[in-house]
User: What shape does this take?
Amino acid sequence: MVTKHETGFKVGTVVGNTSPQEFSFIVKSFTAKLGDLVRVEMEIPVAEGQGRKQVLVWGRIVELGRSNPFLPMEAGQELAEEGVDLISTVLSLSRDQVTGRVLVLGATDVGNLKRIRPLNYPVSPGAVVYLPPARAVRTILTGDETVHRLRLGSLIGRSDVPVGIKTNAIVARHMAILAMTGGGKTVAARRIIRELLDARYPLVILDPHGDYLGLWIKRKLFPRNSICLFYPNLTVSEENLSLVGYLVAQMTQGFTDAQRDKYSEALGKINLKGEVTVQRFVELMMKKLGDTKSRHAGTIPAIKRALRLVKGRLEAMEKSNERLRKQATLQGLPFEPMPDPRLDPTGFVRPGRASVVYLGGYDHLTQSTIVAIVLEQLFNHRASMENRIPPFFAVVEEAHNFIPSRGEGQAETPSVDVIKKLITEGRKFGTGLLLISQRPSRLDETALSQCNTFLIFRLVNPRDQGFVEKVMENLTRSDSRLLPGFGPGQGIVSGQGVRFPLVIQVDFDSDLVTAALGSEEFLKQATEWEDPERGVGRGLK
Amino acid sequence: MVKCRTTDGTIALDPNAKLIRMKDEFFIKSQHLAACIIAMPATTKNVLFYFEGSKTEARVVIHVAPTNFFAELEREDPTLRLQSFDLPPRTSAIICGNRVAEVIYSRCATTDVELYAVHVGGFLDGPHILVPLFNHVLSLRSDDHIDFPIVLRKLADRLRHCLTGRTKSLAIQRIDKSHRDFWPTAQGQRFSFLDGGVARIPALASLEPMALRVGIYNVAPGDQIMETREQWSLTPYVLGDIVDQPPHGIRDTTDRKRLHEAARYVLELLTALVHLELKPDTSSLFIHGPLVNQFTMYDEGEPNNIPCMAAEFLASMSVHRSAVMSELLDIPPDSRNVSLWNQFMSIYGYVTNRIVNHARPIAGVVERPTGRHVTTAVLAALVEDGIINTDESKDIDDLLLKFDISDDFLFGCILRSGEYLTPVEVSKNAVNRAREHWRSVVAQYPPVYTSLIKTEETRFPFRVELNATAAEVNSAYIMSLLYHTGRLLPQYAFPVGLDIVDKYAKVPDWLSRGISAELSGVILRRAVNTGDAGLVSQVRQLLSGNPRDFFYRADAN
Ligand SMILES: Nc1ncnc2c1ncn2[C@@H]1O[C@H](COP(=O)(O)OP(=O)(O)OP(=O)(O)O)[C@@H](O)[C@H]1O
Ligand SMILES: [Mg+2]
Assistant: This one.
């Protein structure tokens, strides 16, 4: 005897033509919602005419439509002309008919929900559709419950069914979070970071806007972790002697052949022990260039001009980064210069550590260069198998700036190659990536399609929707139709991290919210702005 | 036929007017017309004669044009070049089949809609009427093809004339369309709409359907609470349950089609009676279909072999032998001298009498009123009231027969949108059509008050059959309700409440499709042939409303 508790609620009846992939059903009023997981019991044939057996078919409601066949449209018009309410007439208003379309996820045995197989027989019309109880849904969603999962949130409209993603699937096989601005990317990323911190998984967070600096402020919540805030500190050593030459090529018009010859000549004379800052390196080069002769009078001064320009730019950006770090909201945060990822990788990556690299103030090229250096060196440490650092997970915000598509300037983005390398070989070496972007269509398609788990929030731009549909194999049309309607934190998670695509509400960690950070209270700022002519302005009132 | 307005403004009609040819000249011979012309003021300048017709039939509308008629026309549209058509005429001018004729006609027609019977043109040209019209015309003798529309117009003119203000007992009534005024009067009332549907299984198309269901939509306009505002019920009946055991049960020779019709007519009315019993707050009840049908062909004799109804089933519907016997006198016995009180013929007589004499208004609505019941009754009443004499009536009757003109076409032409006919008593069951031993019972089948109402100019009118209460106490209100509910479905011109219940009572396709044909075939045949109660109940489950109720009813489990 199956109790109601175990079978769940009747929510409708299968109607019309069905297939093993999908079916439609008439929904009992106000019982099922879009995105709900539903269940149908039916018989399927057993191998080679051995009879049949009972199975449970599981599916997800991907479309809902509502109509009232008893309410003719013309009646509404006729009455509207005279301003009479429908309710004062004999028209029927109560018989709305709600039809749902269900995408079949698979079938299980009646007694064992853990193993789900593809359905190989059409769903039977007339069958009753149930909304299963939370426990059954949980089993269906997770299958093997022993695997480590990190909790993301719950099914939309079913807060009693938690949704987690397989930790291993994302730390080794990457994940992408895509949404228009305000969709909830950062909130979701913080959720994932928090779960990984709890597991003491090493994290490297590349943070252009300072969205993650609050982790340090909330460090009390993470007693088993160490959270470090770094600012960029570009250094030159024997391994990356070409760095400054690269910056010259990108920041200026580049060297002529004659200039390049002379530059190489001077570079050959330099003998670095350990690492030096870029500024120091430029000074050294200037000196060596001073000793170098040239046939054309203009060659050496031109090289020096270019070096001075690069030095000046870097200094300006350092200043600007510093100013940002000193602003009121960030004051008191213990920023340190970032360690050399080659010589001191454990400064970045060690169990329990989260290294937040604050990139604010740097231009696109330099941010990308920094990210390239950090990831490249850390990757090399993993790839060399010296076991100096454990596996780690890197969070890349504004990923479209670091791994843009071909049309969006891959050539001027030094981080492209290394990110591609991490994505393709991350599985081997345990270097996972979390790519976060509000412009999916500007991301490199191949890199993105190698992410194995996706979390997609609200997207209204049709190009972005189309792109996401293309990149994610198991996202259906009806799923992508949901995207523009999502509220903050509502989205679809799909891929290897979950058993099926699920429509979820991401948990909001209110305890991670820091008042100072990411506040957009510009009205308050403007009204309290000091008026140079009249002292403190009262501004808007 | 001549039609004109007399000086006192009323319309005069001379159906006996004739066109006479003398040598090369034609004359209209009409006393009415002569009287009209004599009465015309001497200042009259122009008279328009609008002729239409065929070789043998003609109709002329005569219209006194205002003095400045042609001057106005000329001024409004100089391109007409009226002079070249000799207009205004020196003596007389013939304008035929050109633009000038059209302009003049449409101008006159808009100034005197009634005289030109403009609505008839609109009706006959309506897209929904044209096809039936063609079909009808093609079914006539080819000589009559051309004459049909003009004969129809002339008959419509004559009857409309007779039915306009001539007698109190029989007239065309008008309803003013105003949802704003009407619906407030409906607040606080409760209306029921009833329709039966068959449970047909497509896979078994060869078999007549063996189950049917009667749906009722009960609604209280203005009630804000959906649960009380709208109440729905769907009662399934399985044929095996309602008919008697052998020897009075179904035989191999039973005409199944007829049995089904008989069952449907009886069950709809029985369900209506039970419903009114259960819902005493129902103000009036509307049935999709006639209140009383022709029922003389559902007897137990060859070749119909219609069985008796099961006494047990009847009892469950509160119909008992004693009540039937006291309602109907002279119920015949069968060959073994057992009273046929529960044969369909008797039960129908009992049920129709209870419906017709019910204290609450009950009306049946028939979508496309073919047949001539109403026209025949109207002619009889007109003769009785002295509006026409028997010769005229016979004359009209002959035309109706010759051109096979039915109520739908004739009253489609007679009535304008929003008009209906005073309900007239109609008896559908001619005693002499019944088998000898049933005649006394058939004689007790009640007549119903019957009306036709048109809600849309270009749609057929529908027939309304009223019980005595509906006709005598509040026919105007019932008709107005039907009109306003019809207006809510303008494309279809049928009361929306009945359309709703019609959809509700139909078995949805998917349900039938879901049933295994083989299985249902077996069960059906056994249920009906063996009368096995278990199987019958399975059939009921198979065909009853449950799945549909489940998804249509908000409060179902
Ligand atoms: N899971 C959630 N539950 C409730 N509210 C949320 C959730 N996620 C986001 N929000 C709301 O939306 C706001 C924006 O979220 P978030 O900063 O994560 O967006 P974003 O996608 O990172 O935007 P941007 O592209 O501007 O960085 C949050 O401040 C919060 O108010
Ligand atoms: Mg963000």
